[in-house]
Amino acid sequence: MERLLSSVSRPRLASIRCIPQLTVLARTTHKSFNGSSDTYIESMYEQWSKDPQSVHKSWDLYFCNQNQQKTSTPDLFLCSPGFSRYDKVINSSENQFPVSNRIQTDGSRERKIFNSKLVDDHVAVASLIRSFQVRGHKLAKLDPLEISTIDLDSERPTDLSYKFYRFTEADLDRTFFLPPGTYIGGEENQLPLREIIRRLENIYCQTVAVEYMHINSHEKCNWIRQRFEDPSKKVLEIQEIERAARRLIHASKFEEFLKKKWTTEKRFGLEGCEVLIPAMKMVIDTVASTGVDTVIMGMPHRGRLNVLSNVTKKALDELLRLFNDKIATDGEPETGDVKYHLGTYIERLYSATNSKIKFILLANPSHLEAVNPVVQGRTRAEQFYRNDKQGDKVMSILLHGDAAFAGQGVVFETFHLTHLPDYTTHGTVHIICNNQIGFTTDPRVARSSPYCTDVARVVNAPIFHVNADDVDSVLYVAKVAAEWRCKFKTDVVIDLVGYRRHGHNEADEPMFTQPHMYGKIKEQTPVLKKWIDKLLKSNIIKQEWYEAEVTKYEKFIDTAWTNSKNSAVVKIKSWIDAPWKGFFNKHGPFPYPKTGISEDKVKNIGIKAYEPPKDLNLHRGLKRIFDNRIKMLEERQIDWALAESIAIGSILDSGHHVRLSGQDVERGTFSHRHHVLHDQEKDLVTYIPLNNLHQTQGNYTICNSSLSEFAVLGFELGYSTSNPYSLVIWEAQFGDFANTAQCIIDQFISSGQAKWVRQSGIVLLLPHGYEGQGPEHSSARLERFLQMSAEDEDHVPEIKNSVYNDLSMYQLDQTNWIIANVTTPANFFHILRRQTALPFRKPLIIMSPKSLLRLPECRSSFDEIIDGTSFKLIYPEDGVASTNPDQVKKLIFCSGKTYYDLINERTGEKLDSQIAIVRIEQLCPFPFDSIRMELEKYKNAKVCFAQEEHKNMGSYSFCKPRLASVLREMNDKRANEINYAGRDAAAATATGLKSIDKSEKKKYMHEAMEI
């Protein structure tokens, strides 16, 4: 490229390099060329010699120049008539220069010789225009307070000045033809340099800053250029302006009312960025006009009450009732949440488009961006169930704070789901309420990137920064962003640069830490007054109209306030963001579900799960595995992988949708699943046997995820809340990897129903077990999940006023989630099927195995999964000890994989008749009644709890007090004599040395066998 540009003046070389025609020629003109640059140029020259129009115009210009130099006419430029724009330049009255002669070569082509400086100047103008398109945003006036440049990169671009290109003031009145990569001329194709610069500054350096040149698409860049550069495009209709004015009145007067009534109450108001409401409504207006009828939203707490009232149109009296400090609920939920965390679900006629639309605002905690993937999962599910394959009907809007958008890693994780086939939602409109501060932290010490939005560049999203006090520009940007989403179905970001009129909350004192900023804010005229004054001055609206609208809204909100005082009871179910119509209409009593299936169905599903098509080139190793599983079926046995396949297949067979997602789930981390088969000779040719059971079955989506836990688990949670009849499973690669998704587990899964009446039947498969693989591959942190269980360890439950006549069903209904550490394929089969058979939905946490996947003893027979069978809460002792319980000296309770180690140790020590071992399969809710039966049966035996985990981990600390509670209820003195057998307390979950692992295991096995 240096040789290619050797004839161009050096001061302009850097700017010319940024002209795409000269940097991508190899791709655009000779795609098949693979040789050196010298050979390439020779090849292109040969092609040009035969037909100048067969190459790019830039090549034509270059070779003309080379020929001119060879003829020793340094001030003349030989050019083909194919470069038509410069033909016009030659004859332009403003740019007269000598034409030496015209050369006829074949009678059909004419070349012209002209001044090379003129061409150089036109190239420089093209470079100047491009510089504004690339870096003009760095000079934009975005801060309403006029104290910040927003862009933390203090370097100002020098290439936005005409002097950088060696133009002088005298050149400003010269006229130049506009290059094809701009629309600033409208219908004109040439402008004076002064006017070119003026238009570029007005477009790129005022109250709107556009970042789009990072997008790797000529079509998309041109689309954005046209909407911001073409003078005829930036026009809003009078109706749109009036509508926006009305919405800004509502947003502003809503905040004023709350401030007047509850001056110091935390409400996280929108003052300083009230324009968010008309901006959101403009987005919704635009997408609704194209057919979108469902908008799913997520947002932080700031501005939520305003969005609830003025975007979703939540009943205002219900909203204001939440400010009553003597409020009561109608019985649900257990705890509830603060008003600025709640969500809603509203279906209504949307007046702007006269069409029915559904608004869903998801509830979420103060963990800010944590709701992002949940919204995306919910959106994807709604699109799936409606067969909305391109997002034409269902879309998402995400609101953000500037500090959180830049600082929270889940933002990046969620963006990385944008284009993944099984996770895309076909474009999200992101709106940032940029307060230019995070709590009390200045952006200059809060982020390293120039803009808070830079993370969005990773998915080539266009970014529109806009001064939130310039309402006209905000509205136009919102409209363009919505049009982008509808056309290109990819993400787009609107950065509303405003301020926060109060501190972090209304009782906070911001002058402690931001005295200069808040000195300016105190003097700042509210945006409503600024814009209304402008509209009145322009005669777009009348004073009478404005006053009437204010009076009308103030009357409306006063009426709602009066109505809110008529009742001190909040109907919590009106705040549900995921109502499942018809699901809870059944009446009890509800028996414990039988989840077995017919033997014929077991065999049929089992065979089809491992029956690849004949034209698929299956891996030889898989063929052997599949043959072994077919053989197992013939022997009426199932292992773990077969149990899972049959369970999922049977749910699909009933017409339910199943989604299994996570890292490497298609094959399975431990190479046991193989639900997606890959042709060994054809790339990207796959086959999913479980999607080929029969024509009326449910859809099975099994997809490897990105290497993310936080975003992917949040996505699957959101997906699970859309439809109660589906089974949604997330599998961690190793159980302890779930700790990077702990926010989703803590804030959404374990407590979602208690806070937001949001039920979910999501299943978490967390590989757990000590096989000497070190601290990162052993424990799924079972103890953490158990600690978050809403169950009183000192209270043995009884059925009270319930539709259940079965205690275990009553407990399942009362619990916040289900935690199990199952030990047999049959029980794994049943617990998966039970998830869709229960009359309610609860999250299910399963400590799934590793070594048990192939342990010969870990097999189940058909008799344990056929009709009439169900999930077992515990497995009682079924060996010799059970035949003579009075002679048993020790009763060991355990859970999970350690059972098989205990059994082998007991046999080796010849203690089969003296020690009984009971497996607790479901830890939460704790099976009090089943445990009591075992304690009563072995009344003379010492009680011990054995586990492979360390003493301060695992299920020991959860089970011991519950065993004691049962014994106390039995008036049994053993309540204070429960022994422990397991590893000592430790800081890390496991040792990294196999020798120590073996010695620890040997020690606790010896303790367990002591009588």
TrEMBL record:
Keyword Oxidoreductase (UniProt): yes
Cofactor section: Mg(2+); thiamine diphosphate
Catalytic function, reaction form: N(6)-[(R)-lipoyl]-L-lysyl-[protein] + 2-oxoglutarate + H(+) = N(6)-[(R)-S(8)-succinyldihydrolipoyl]-L-lysyl-[protein] + CO2
Molecular-function GO terms, alphabetical: metal ion binding; oxoglutarate dehydrogenase (succinyl-transferring) activity; thiamine pyrophosphate binding
Keyword Magnesium: yes
Entry keywords, A to Z: Calcium, Glycolysis, Isopeptide bond, Magnesium, Metal-binding, Mitochondrion, Nucleus, Oxidoreductase, Thiamine pyrophosphate, Transit peptide, Ubl conjugation
Domain Transketolase-like pyrimidine-binding per the UniProt entry, residue ranges: 638-855
GO biological process: glycolytic process; tricarboxylic acid cycle
Main subcellular location: mitochondrion
Cellular localisation: Mitochondrion; Nucleus
Pfam (any one): E1_dh
InterPro entries: 2-oxogl_dehyd_N, 2oxoglutarate_DH_E1, DH_E1, KGD_C_sf, ODO-1/KGD_C, THDP-binding, Transketolase-like_Pyr-bd
Gene3D superfamilies noted in UniProt: 3.40.50.12470, 3.40.50.970, Multifunctional 2-oxoglutarate metabolism enzyme, C-terminal domain, TPP helical domain
Recorded coiled-coil stretches: none
EC nos: 1.2.4.2
GO cellular component: mitochondrion; nucleus; oxoglutarate dehydrogenase complex
Similarity comment: Belongs to the alpha-ketoglutarate dehydrogenase family.
NCBIfam families: 2oxo_dh_E1, PRK09404.1
Function: The 2-oxoglutarate dehydrogenase complex catalyzes the overall conversion of 2-oxoglutarate to succinyl-CoA and CO(2). It contains multiple copies of three enzymatic components: 2-oxoglutarate dehydrogenase (E1), dihydrolipoamide succinyltransferase (E2) and lipoamide dehydrogenase (E3).
Protein name per its UniProtKB record: 2-oxoglutarate dehydrogenase complex component E1
